[in-house]
């Protein structure tokens, strides 16, 4: 490639990156409009799930932990990437003894038959029970009790029953749609002669809310920012207009928003978002999640880099073959490149070589790669901040009149491990979306293993042996 051609491509590359940055930037005004639109959709969802892209699912968790719960309970936590099996000894006074095993769910299990998925889960539960056998004394006539955290949309009619509405993230076992997830799990456990009662079924956000409240009485909402994204919060039951059973005595109900499915004409979808959505099995669903979450951020970056390689020779005369492979670039790699503080961006160079088989990249080109990571992550973080603002508005916690500390429990790898994403989210919420005095009272707090611990605590509060 001649020097004139290099200069021409360099100018084109600079122009394209600037245009992409402008397309991905979301102003404060638009963020606030999106938050208001989300509030509107949430209120509609409380009236009728079919009229809103945000389903606002009733969780049947109508009371949250006091922290004084006691006893030995088990928890299953099936997320977008991992399955965790936990033994949780609740010791009162907000303390626990936790033992857990984590397994990465194989891709073929995620997209196979539903019985294969639940057989896999039962196998891991059996393994953990065998390992922990000495730690738990089963009293005569009693079974172990287990809370099941299930990170996918279900329609619940009670605390221990729920039919799968649809898969999200990269799960796709079509024959599971419409089936009761507790029944499917129970059948698989029975096949292995595992004597356990599935006492509670809850979404991971509901689990995180319960787990967060176990440790901190000021927790009123929970947000998951990981492979997928979602939120749950405590709603006043008299604001739930749609039918769901007897109103709870507590006057409160935890709502699983399923806000990752938020769709609005205000959402600033780019050509990259539309292409990603068109290539997804859940076409035109989970649009907000596809702009924000860990499952998709790396793919957005890959698609941008591919266009820059194709149109402005980012990586030389030819387009690297690996760069054309869907989902080859994980968000963990994007995070590593975005956070590279070395003078020669050596981490970026190593990532490009290892993951995309691209070598000998100049410092200037590596800076472009970092910039694209920053552009995609910044948009995702700012959209997340707007979504959290919507939850605060639903709770009436966005105004000064409602004083007192407000804690939002947050879990998920995107928030926990992607430091630039986390910092941008916190800064956007505190400095751009909330008044200064209000922002001092709103705390985003990470709780390790909260969704699993929450499942165990909810299982305890709904124990069939409770007097």
From TrEMBL:
<comment type="similarity">
    <text>Belongs to the hexokinase family.</text>
</comment>
<comment type="pathway">
    <text>Carbohydrate metabolism; hexose metabolism.</text>
</comment>
<keyword id="KW-0067">ATP-binding</keyword>
<dbReference type="GO" id="GO:0006006">
    <property type="term" value="P:glucose metabolic process"/>
</dbReference>
<keyword id="KW-0547">Nucleotide-binding</keyword>
<feature type="domain" description="Hexokinase N-terminal">
    <location>
        <begin position="17"/>
        <end position="212"/>
    </location>
</feature>
<keyword id="KW-0324">Glycolysis</keyword>
<keyword id="KW-0418">Kinase</keyword>
<dbReference type="GO" id="GO:0005829">
    <property type="term" value="C:cytosol"/>
</dbReference>
<dbReference type="InterPro" id="IPR001312">
    <property type="entry name" value="Hexokinase"/>
</dbReference>
<dbReference type="Pfam" id="PF03727">
    <property type="entry name" value="Hexokinase_2"/>
</dbReference>
<dbReference type="Pfam" id="PF00349">
    <property type="entry name" value="Hexokinase_1"/>
</dbReference>
<feature type="domain" description="Hexokinase C-terminal">
    <location>
        <begin position="221"/>
        <end position="460"/>
    </location>
</feature>
<dbReference type="GO" id="GO:0004340">
    <property type="term" value="F:glucokinase activity"/>
</dbReference>
<dbReference type="GO" id="GO:0005739">
    <property type="term" value="C:mitochondrion"/>
</dbReference>
<dbReference type="InterPro" id="IPR022672">
    <property type="entry name" value="Hexokinase_N"/>
</dbReference>
<comment type="pathway">
    <text>Carbohydrate degradation; glycolysis; D-glyceraldehyde 3-phosphate and glycerone phosphate from D-glucose: step 1/4.</text>
</comment>
<dbReference type="GO" id="GO:0005524">
    <property type="term" value="F:ATP binding"/>
</dbReference>
<dbReference type="InterPro" id="IPR043129">
    <property type="entry name" value="ATPase_NBD"/>
</dbReference>
<protein>
    <recommendedName>
        <fullName>Phosphotransferase</fullName>
        <ecNumber>2.7.1.-</ecNumber>
    </recommendedName>
</protein>
<keyword id="KW-0808">Transferase</keyword>
<dbReference type="GO" id="GO:0006096">
    <property type="term" value="P:glycolytic process"/>
</dbReference>
<dbReference type="GO" id="GO:0008865">
    <property type="term" value="F:fructokinase activity"/>
</dbReference>
<dbReference type="GO" id="GO:0005536">
    <property type="term" value="F:D-glucose binding"/>
</dbReference>
<dbReference type="InterPro" id="IPR022673">
    <property type="entry name" value="Hexokinase_C"/>
</dbReference>
<dbReference type="GO" id="GO:0051156">
    <property type="term" value="P:glucose 6-phosphate metabolic process"/>
</dbReference>
<dbReference type="GO" id="GO:0001678">
    <property type="term" value="P:intracellular glucose homeostasis"/>
</dbReference>
């Amino acid at each position: 490639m001649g020097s004139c051609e290099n200069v021409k491509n360099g100018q084109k590359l600079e122009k394209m990156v600037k245009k992409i940055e402008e397309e991905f930037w979301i102003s404060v005004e638009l963020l606030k409009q999106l938050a208001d639109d989300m509030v509107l959709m949430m209120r509609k969802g409380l009236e009728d799930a079919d009229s809103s892209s945000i389903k606002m699912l009733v969780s049947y968790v109508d009371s949250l932990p006091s922290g004084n719960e006691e006893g030995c309970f088990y928890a299953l936590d099936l997320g977008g990437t991992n399955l965790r099996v936990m033994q949780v000894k609740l010791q009162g006074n907000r303390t626990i003894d936790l033992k857990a095993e984590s397994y990465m769910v194989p891709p073929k299990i995620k997209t196979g038959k539903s019985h294969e998925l639940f057989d896999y889960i039962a196998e891991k539960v059996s393994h953990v029970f065998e390992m922990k056998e000495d730690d738990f004394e089963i009293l005569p006539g009693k079974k172990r009790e287990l809370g099941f955290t299930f990170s996918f949309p279900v329609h619940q009619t009670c605390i221990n029953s729920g039919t799968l509405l649809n898969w999200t993230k990269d799960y796709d076992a079509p024959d599971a749609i419409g089936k009761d997830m507790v029944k499917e799990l129970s059948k698989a456990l029975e096949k292995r002669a595992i004597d356990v009662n599935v006492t509670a079924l809850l979404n991971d956000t509901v689990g995180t809310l319960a787990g967060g409240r176990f440790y901190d009485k000021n927790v009123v909402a929970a947000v998951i920012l990981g492979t997928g994204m979602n939120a749950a919060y405590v709603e006043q039951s008299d604001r739930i207009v749609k039918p769901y059973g007897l109103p709870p005595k507590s006057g409160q109900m935890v709502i699983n928003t399923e806000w990752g499915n938020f769709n609005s004409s205000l959402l600033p979808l780019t050509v990259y978002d539309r292409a990603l959505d068109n290539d997804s099995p859940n076409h035109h669903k989970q649009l907000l999640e596809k702009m924000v979450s860990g499952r998709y951020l790396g793919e957005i970056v890959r698609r941008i880099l591919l266009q820059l390689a194709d149109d402005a020779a980012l990586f030389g005369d030819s387009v690297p073959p690996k760069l054309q492979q869907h989902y080859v670039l994980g968000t963990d790699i994007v995070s590593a490149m975005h956070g590279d503080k070395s003078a020669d961006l050596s981490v970026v160079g190593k990532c490009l070589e290892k993951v995309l088989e691209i070598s000998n990249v100049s410092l200037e080109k590596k800076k472009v790669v970092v910039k694209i990571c920053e552009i995609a992550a910044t948009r995702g973080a700012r959209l997340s901040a707007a979504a959290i603002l919507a939850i605060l508005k639903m709770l009436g916690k966005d105004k000064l009149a409602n004083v007192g500390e407000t804690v939002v429990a947050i879990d998920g790898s995107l928030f926990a491990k992607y430091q630039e994403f986390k910092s941008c989210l916190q800064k956007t919420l505190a400095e751009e979306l909330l008044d200064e005095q209000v922002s001092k009272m709103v705390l985003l707090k990470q709780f390790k293993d909260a969704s699993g611990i929450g499942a165990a605590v909810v299982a305890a509060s709904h124990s069939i042996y409770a007097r």
